[in-house]
Amino acid sequence: METAGAYSDFTKRLKLLISKHPALITATLSNIFTMRLIGNKTHGDLAEIAISEFINQYMYDFQSTHVGKDLYRAKSQEEDIKIINEITKVEFPVSLKAYGHGPLQLSTDKNSSMFQLLENERKEEENIVDKQQIRNLLNSSVFLDFSKVNILSLIYDEGLKHCNILVFNYNIACQYISRIVRTGPGGRRRHPVYKFYDFRNNYIFEVRYGGATANALQRGLWTHTKKGYQFFDSITDGWVNYSDNQFLVSLFSSALVSSETGHSTALKEIEKDIRTLKQSIGVI
């Protein structure tokens, strides 16, 4: 089984588990987004650890490893966790995104390969509308490389206190593209972007700017969970309500000023709780 097929199988299994035991993922997502009370960026890093542990604890036929930030500098492709199917032994990387409901960066294109390709293909002052030209662009190596990236997006709406786990159907979205439009700079936009639309002028995704003056972390392929929601598959089968876990914040606060002895004692109690949860779903 190729890695794309292995990832698709994994998301189906995850969706099935969540449908049968929604309380497990609701508690996990609540804990992840509670981390925003500690810091606006904290939840993103801890989401990687949490989802990896969720897989290890509750998905008995999968094993996950958190890759970590040190390896990120050396790795050839975008990945935050690695997952192994314990039955087929196929290993595949997954890139985790934790974003608010709205703009979503799917991939960081450090070398601006996508943007430069589009700049070279576009005739001055013209949009790209030729079907064959669009197909050729999407079949180029830089876009094909992205199609191989496995992305799991944890999306939250802080105002409504609900969240979603989404998988962007990139290959399906590409089938609907009929026009590529270069927008900007101008107004609040300092750099140009290329926006991809279907024949009804519905937004699909965009490639953001390159160049020396652009923020390298902002480069790459972006979409929008509101404008392009039809191109996502919801692993949670829609929006899930979550709540802030104040006990978790207190636990973190106390843990930071306590000893390893205290941590060890607390961990034993948490492990008991996890065993109880696993027994409730028949994992052990």
Task: Describe the structure in your own words.
The protein is α+β, with helices and mostly antiparallel strands and 284 residues long. The chain is built from 10 helices and 12 strands. It has helices spanning 3-20, 22-34, 42-58, 69-72, 113-121, 131-138, 141-147, 170-174, 246-255, 260-281; strands at 62-66, 81-85, 91-100, 103-107, 151-157, 162-168, 179-183, 193-197, 203-208, 220-224, 232-234, 240-241. The strands form 2 sheets. Strands 1, 2, 3, 5, 6, 11 and 12 form a 7-stranded mixed sheet that branches. A 5-stranded antiparallel sheet has the order 4-10-9-8-7. Strand 8 and strand 9 (203-208) form a beta hairpin. Helix 1 crosses helix 2 and helix 2 runs antiparallel to helix 3. The longest helix is centred in the C-terminal third of the chain and has 22 residues, at 260-281. The mean pLDDT is 91.
What keywords describe this structure?
alpha+beta, 7-stranded mixed β-sheet, about 280 residues
Order of helices and strands: HHHEHEEEHHHEEHEEEEEEHH
Number of domains: 1
Write down the Rg. 21 Å
Helix content: 25-40%
Strand runs, count: 12
pLDDT averaged over residues:
91
Contiguous low-pLDDT stretches (5 residues minimum) are none
Alpha-carbon distance between the two ends: 28 Å
* Largest sheet, strands/sense/barrel: 7 strands, mixed
How many helices? The count is 10
Strand content: 15-25%
Overall outline: elongated
